[in-house]
Amino acid sequence: MSKRKKRADKQRKVEITKGIFSVLEKNKNQPLNYKQIASKLGINDTGGRNLLIKRLGQLKAKEKIEEVERGKYRVIPSQNYYTGIVDITGRGNAYVICDDLENDVFIPSSLLSKALHGDEVEVYVFPRRRGSKRLEGEITKVINRKRTTFVGIVQMQKNFAFVVPGDFRMYTDIFVAKNKINNAEDGDKVLVEITDWPDKAESPYGKIIKVLGKPGEHQTEMHAILAEYGLPYEFPGDVEHFANQLDTSIQETEIKKRRDMRGITTFTIDPRDAKDFDDALSFQVLENGNYEIGIHIADVSHYVQPGSVLDDEAYNRATSVYLVDRVVPMLPEILSNNACSLRPHEEKYTFSALFEMDKNAGVINQWFGRTVTYSDQRFAYEEAQHIIENYHLSETEGALKVFSNDDERSAKVMIPEDLSITEKEYEVAPMVSLAILVLDDLAKKMRHRRMDAGAISFDKVEVKFRLNEENDPMGVYFKEAKDSNKLIEEFMLLANRKVAEFIGKQKKTFVYRVHDEPDDEKLIQLNGVISRFGYSVNLKSRKTITSSLNQLLEEVQGKKEQNLVDTLAIRSMSKAEYTTENIGHYGLAFDYYTHFTSPIRRYPDVMVHRLLQYYIDGGASAKEEEYQEKCRHSSQMESLAANAERDSVKYMQIKFMEDHKNQDFIGVISGVTEWGIYVEIIENKCEGMVRIRDIKDDYYVFDDQQYALVGEVTKSMYQLGDEVIVKVKNTDLIKRHLDFELLGKKEDVLV
């Protein structure tokens, strides 16, 4: 017998064996004879039937299957069933990720059993073949669909349509009957919902639930990004109506139930273009020389009551979504931009954390509760930064006074016209400018103490676009955190930490924001990459890890590899999440931490406000299971919102690069895969792909040990972190693909 014939026989034996298990698994409660099994497997030749009968006998002898009555077989219940999550690959095959298995289970496309990416499934793991390291199996049941709605393009036929999804992991198109097309036209981008998937149908059946518009149009693509993640872009009519009927006036009867802070110097510091101001700071000097600092947060829970349609909608959304050109708020505008926004010269209901602090930023006393406040002034970060950079404090005749850095005399604090949000030069009230300088000093001391305790300083550069009225990107700029940003950050961290500590020490159910320690393997991988730039992370202990990470992040500031190293360092960290089980926050080096300071845009903060007031009022510990489920949902929605935000930035990057097709760019290789390299342009942070098939000077293969593509003949290498010269090859706004043409390494091209 030839080797080819032997291989063919062996392959057929494997296929029939898998087929036997597959058929018997799908008919667990109905024993089948060999004719029924042969029919289901499509075996109709004598050789195949004989091989089937032989394998049934062998599997019975090995006690893999049992003969329950003469000639009828069923699979023996075994431990080979697992539950996991499907991860579809770009080639249509999949892996099932199971908590109970060390390795993922490979599933060929033919054995997916209509499972889709992200579904929770039951998987049967085949007995491991001799010499094989890979686990293989078959999906036997879809337990829960991850999603049933998809964004795609309509392909109209005479009496029906197909919707072709844009997500490459969705391996099938969706059949839509003529009466379920919802007025869509050929070529429209739509949101389609799967309604059924009959056993014998190749494609699932669906209905078009929303026409998003024509592909490539700006509004269509923004709405498509939201729809892909199941995120809404408008409020239901009943929710808007309910919110608009709320009494948002400030009532004397309600003020009497609160601590009145309206006479204390209070102000906000926010981005120049902010529309909702959910936090304010108050400041006063106490008779003993200490300071009383108030962190005042919009009292959203006063308006958003449990059980209302408004609360249900806020919970379902769980977060505001910040796309590149818009905010999709968690709450209707009447609350987010009006009643709950701490706008200047308006009285507002607030929930506050008050701290008596000494000059070393030590907390002497604390108080939490509901208040009413009045904001004296609104600052943009640039205005507050101007005060911090150009003025300083000095003690004169037993009192703190503000001095100009250019003059030894006490000075008026002026905001110049070019920085002013009023577009006119103006003088800042003395008490407000004093407050900003004192708070900056305290914030720096708190930050220094936090870093000494092992906090990690992730100040990643944020990419922003200058948009014209048509939402076309006219330019790119980078947003960096300065002292004024860090001032606000430190006091928000203080409030979040102290609220969590206050409840946590009472051992009552609470909503925590936790961050686990990084995975050792990810840190080792990080070290492997950054060693190419001459950096390293000391993995000896927690203290050496955090201190060397901070040193790394400081050393790369302003260098070409900064964004790459920052990104890789963040990826090496665990993901922060909401939970009722407190394990502390590794990145901030806090034993207790929560989110208390942004209830306008985060539902967990609303839960924290409610629980805090409930416990202040003497309530017993709340039901942990209920809050754990709410935490899980909030973490999930936060992840979806982050993905949508990233996709919108990617879309805008591609739109920006459309107008730069004939330009050469210097970039850094930011990713290496078996299908190509990702390159991030240094001057604008836009990232695109060079496909391996388009690199013509050699045949390149992927080396996963060196994070590189290596030429078979020349041994030329393109490695993570290399500087290269690229040119835009193709921009696809619909698929959100940016392809580059590789011109070569920087040192080879620029000679």
Walk me through this protein's architecture.
The chain is 31% helix and 29% strand. The protein contains 18 helices and 37 strands. The protein has a 7-stranded mixed beta sheet. The chain has a 5-stranded mixed barrel with strand order 3-4-5-7-6. A 5-stranded mixed barrel has the order 8-9-10-12-11. Helix 1 crosses helix 3. A hairpin with an 8-residue loop joins strand 9 (160-165) and strand 10 (174-177). The protein is globular. The chain is of the alpha+beta class and 751 residues long.
Q: Which geometry do the CA atoms define? A: globular
Largest sheet: 7 strands, mixed
Give the terminus-to-terminus CA distance: 62 Å
**Individual helix count:** 18
* Portion in helices: 25-40%
Q: Please state the CA-atom Rg, rounded to the nearest Å.
A: 31 Å
DSSP, total strands: 37
Given helix and strand content, the structural type is: alpha+beta
Share of residues in strands? 25-35%
- How are the strands ordered across the major sheet? 13-20-19-16-15-14-21
Unreliable spans are none
**Arithmetic mean pLDDT:** 90
Brief sketch in words of this structure:
This protein is α+β, with helices and mostly antiparallel strands and 751 residues long. It has 18 helices and 37 strands. The strands form 11 sheets. It has a 7-stranded mixed sheet with strand order 13-20-19-16-15-14-21.
